[in-house]
Structures are given as structure tokens and as C-alpha cells.
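2024-03-11 09:14:02 DEBUG pipeline.ingest accepted 1 chain
2024-03-11 09:14:02 DEBUG pipeline.ingest length=134
2024-03-11 09:14:03 DEBUG pipeline.predict start
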Amino acid sequence: MMSDRGHNAVVLTRAAMGAAVAFACGGGCAQPPSSKLGILDENPAVKIPAIKRAAVDKNLAEAAPLVDQLTDEDGAIRFYAIEALKQMAGDDFGYHYYDDRAERAKAVERWRQWLLTQQPDGTPATRPAVVNGN
């Protein structure tokens, strides 16, 4: 059995460690990663929360890595990726995570075409007019 003095030292040490972690995190440690690195992580326990966060953030910069996830072998990854993309684009372009590989490939190509038409702010891209063949 631990003495009162030893118990108090443990309690104070834990409290100090908790305060240090809270200070270092600044309140942001509980958020799952939403960076491209999280989306591209091999571990589904990292990847799925990052995909969910991308859906909430609607960050178009994360759309390309999400489109890449539409070809993942894991149906759960494909499911979360298409749900995130639908929130960003408002469309599924005929993609169904449960379709066979050939059908998914056709829809992924439509998603890739959509990516080419988007600006970082989500507005459609426009190509500059060609002047004098340049």
C-alpha cells in the first residue's frame, strides 16, 4: 500500500503532466487529422477519421487524395471517400462503392475530370482564352 506522501506525489505528477499536455495541445489535439497525409495513411484507423474530417471541412485541396481513395481495395474506405466527395461536389458522378471494379473505374474517371474543372475555392475553373495561337 502506498503512503499518503507517495500517493500525493503521484497525483501531483499526473496533474502536472495533464496540464503540460493541455498547454502544448492548445485544445487542438482531439481533432482527427484531415491532411492529405492522414487520408493517404495505410492504417484505416487513421485514414477513416481523416476522410470524415475532410468531409466536414469541405477542403477542396483534399479532393484529389479522396478521389484516389475511390480505388481502394477496402469497401469501407471507398464508402467514406465517396461520402466526403459528395459533400464537396454535391454529386456522386455515378460512383457506387459497391460496384465492380470496371464500373468504379468509369466513375473515378468522371471524378478526375471534375477535379480538373475546380479551383481551390470550389468554383469552376476557366481556361484563359487563346490569343494569336499562344
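2024-03-11 09:14:41 DEBUG pipeline.report The domain at 36-116 is CATH 1.25.10 (Leucine-rich Repeat Variant).
2024-03-11 09:14:41 DEBUG pipeline.predict end
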